[in-house]
Design brief:
Shape: elongated
Oligomer: single chain
Structural class: alpha+beta
Number of domains: 3
Keywords: Cell membrane, Membrane, Transmembrane, Transmembrane helix
Main location: membrane
Number of helices: 26
Number of strands: 10
InterPro entries: MMPL_dom (IPR004869), Mycobact_MmpL (IPR050545), SSD (IPR000731)
Organism: Hymenobacter roseosalivarius DSM 11622
Protein name: Exporter of the RND superfamily protein-like
Distance between the termini: 35 Å
Helix content: 55-70%
Largest sheet: 4 strands, antiparallel
Amino acid sequence: MPLRKLSYLTLLVLALVSALSVYYVAQLRFNYNFNDFYPAGDPDLDYYEQYSKRFGNDNDYVLIGLEAPAGGTVFNAPFLARVDSFTRFVQRQRYVEQVTSPTTLTNPIVEGLGVFNIPYLHLDEPARLPADSAIIYQTPGLVGNLFATNGRAVTVILQTAPDLKKPPGDSLMTSLTTKLTQLGFAPSDYHIAGKLVAQSVFVDRLQREMILFMSLSVLLVTGLLWFTFRTWWGVVLPLVVVLGAILWGLGLMSACGVSIDLMTALLPVIMFTVGMSDTIHFITRYVTELGYGATKNDALRTTIRESGFGSGLSALTTSIGFFTLMTSSIRPIHNFGLFTGISVLLAFVLTFTLLPALLLLLRKPQLRVPRQHGHDWDGVLGRLFRWVLVRRRLVFGLGGLLIAGSIALAMQVRINSALLDDLSEGDPVRQDFGFFERHFAGVRPFELDLKPANGGTIYDLAVLRQIERVETYLRQEVGLNFVASPVTIIKSVRKALNGGDVAEYRLPESEAELRRIVAKVRLFRKKQEFRSLVQPDAREGRLTGRMPDVGSIRADAANARLRTFLTQNIDASILQTRLTGSANLIDKNNQNLTRDMIVGMSIDVVMVTLIVLALFRSLRMTAVVLVPNLVPIIVVAGVMGLAGVSMKVSTSIIFTIAFGIAVDDTIHFISKLKLTLLKEPTLFLAVRRTYLMAGKAVIVTSLILVGGFSTLLFSSFDGTFYVGLLIGLTLLFGVIAELTLLPLLILYFYKHKPREIRQPVAALGAN
């Protein structure tokens, strides 16, 4: 079949696949599901899912903090009237299952066979509010939960429908903020925290930032392509190829039912930069052949023959870098690695099908400066090559010092994360969450499953005393500012039986008194807060609470001390406990980060080793290839230690991705070297010619990669910011190592004579 007809057929097939991809991409949706960040397949996740079916999800809540007018306290009749109006409004909203508010809170009193609920706040009698405030600040469980410690704010707590998604969640949030505005609350007077807030903000920002990143990447890459090739087709054709790979990758993701989340949102911008590598190597080689006087068809054949092997290997190693992320137990990282790795391979396919077809159908390009011997970069690269050779001791010395210092600094990197790690300190959402940290119990949920041993019930006095001991420890040692458990029920009922006297809020002294109290518990079974603490058969209970988001390092240490306390101070023959909850699951991710990173890097290194062994059948060449690509990883780890950047879910992916991308240029270099060795009499001449042939593509692709990742620096998410910064630095250090360490190591390991290395470049002849 003639080449032109084959080209048209190729374009037709690719156009049909692209049309199908457009159909699926149109169905893509943005999503931020907090539960997706739980460690998939973990036994603790299975346990929590069953636990939440019995007691409810500990994350299905919204906290609304309302501040009193300046200079006053919350015990102000007009202010409380607005709070009450808001409470009544919220109770009528769809997707709201329960509302706990200061204005509807009651102090139950049992008299005879009935229960009388006395409001804590007498809204219709303003003169009683000072006395009400005194009672409230003496009653356990109210201050720090519903009332701020300084008396300047209150919280309304909403329990929402389980796993409420973004559209209904956004509708609810809009209704709440609109009502608050109507009631005269300025934006600075109210603060909202909870999963719905994070879900709404994260998804909206993902949409805006994807557009921003892609726009910046297109502008940056277009400029670099024009600077490099100075032709319209040298700009347009790479853009078409890479945008096609992105379209296919997103279409496949949509066809598999995967939404765009905090991790997969990086796919387009990463592919836009990573996918450019093969196209630039291809066009650079094509233009070089044309510059040497080859015809268009011959230039394409040579380019496909000599670049196809190296590009295929580099695409394989780069995709492996992403595929290794599939070892992660965190679903968003798993999906990101899978579909980005596939997209890298798709970019390779399009580079060697769509790009040749388009070049074949275009007229032979007129080069800006016709030339017969080499190209414009030969002089610059030749001088750089000579500089590296002459100053090889300086290069090795500085490299050794840099590695030693980086290793020392890298030892200071710690694994640490918080629930809102991806938001900067000055972010309004994080500041709202911080409001509840400063004035109330906090936003980090705490859950402990309680099971009586030996056939007992939660309402056994011995069991209750054990639970109370745990509560005391949690308040004093862990920092739980709000705690509720079966003990809360018994103490509350006892207080109600004694006229609501706060002094009676304690456990009974005897089994007989406890039996009388338990007999009255049925009067309170309609209260949601009671039903959510004990199962109907009293065979299982729940200790729940909230605390400040102290970060995973302090949380892990506190949990370790808690487990020690439970083992040493709680009688397992009376009460059995198990730590659970959403925060505990998020913390568990940190335990897997180091393992996942080591596994990913190990797979990368093994695959690169096998590829080099297959190419050169030399262990020495394997070391030559690995060192220039591991050095940037070590240096960036040192930068993290120096800057105090913690290892967390978002930053844990940096090293495997960076290694997979950085080794791309090395694969191109050694594959070209293998071909050049067939034409040159010595290794030295082969290395020099390869340096001149591959140097331009290495520098240009690295600039595009660094520039593309630098667009992520504009992200409002700290995790995305550090991905852009640290991968960009890794690639920057990588190209420096590529142009300095790699040729020196090749020549050093093969013991070339210093006299030959020191020969003037001009004396070696041009090839």
